[in-house]
Amino acid sequence: MEIKQINQPVSILSSFIAEMRDVEVQTDPLRFRRNLERIGEIFAYEISKTLTYQPKEITTPLGKATEWFPQEKLVVTSILRAGVPLHNGILNYFDRAENGFVSAFRKYTVNGEFDIHIEYISAPDLTGKTVIMADPMLATGSSLELAYKAIMANGKPKHVHLVSIIASQAGVDYISSILEEEPVTLWVAAVDDELNSKSYIVPGIGDAGDLAYGPK
Ligand code: URA
Predict the structure, then answer these.
(1) What sign results for the dihedral spanned by CA atoms 73, 162, 148, 136?
(2) Residue 198, φ and ψ in degrees, nearest 5
């Protein structure tokens, strides 16, 4: 597995992440979702540089041109529900990709511990394809691990790109350890140092699903 962090060198991406984090901007869910979407577009562009391309001759009004199209069969998948705007941003670039979805949610017990529940999966056959799996927050890595395993039951892909905007260092370390030998690239924008006692990323952003879709 390889890890790629895309917020270096500093670019406009940093200001999009700042808006996601900022309590004063977080009051606008439309802007929050739009920021997830445009960061998805940036990830898609970075991932596009790792794909293989085949040439195609195009007829313009004035002549012929050769342009290049991705050779891979792409499948964009995301973890419901916070992954949806990120998914849409990636799909803006890879608009011919197939799509998959998996739900993962935390069910808390009385003492503040939680189990992850996977209840919904929809995915095409992944055999030999390039899969992108989007989840904006990589906290402990448990949701991503279970969602990854659930989606991978649909066939063995050629390569998997895991995409998270904000990760904790513990989450990055955990995913690297369990997928060490797999053909996987973990893409992150920011890596924060800490998790709190409820396994939320600190400083993080809070709950990405609630910020995108409520309740407030
Ligand atoms: N999910 C979130 O939305 N935020 C976190 O900090 C951790 C998991």
Answers:
(1) negative
(2) -100, 15
How many domains is the chain built from? 1
Percent share of the chain, pLDDT over 90: 93
Q: What are phi and psi of 11, to 5 degrees?
A: -145, -175
Residue owning the nearest CA to atom 4 of ligand 1: 207
ipTM of the complex: 0.96
Radius of gyration from C-alpha coordinates of the chain:
18
CATH number where 90 lies: 3.40.50.2020
Distance CA 37, CA 33 (A): 6
Token pair 């195009």: residue: 58
Calculate how far, in angstroms, residue 33's C-alpha sits from the geometric centre of ligand 1.
Answer: 15
Tell how far the Cα of 207 is from the centroid of ligand 1, in angstroms: 5
Mutate to test the pocket of ligand 1, among 135, 205, 213 (most ligand atoms within 8 A of CB): 205
pTM of the model as a whole: 0.96
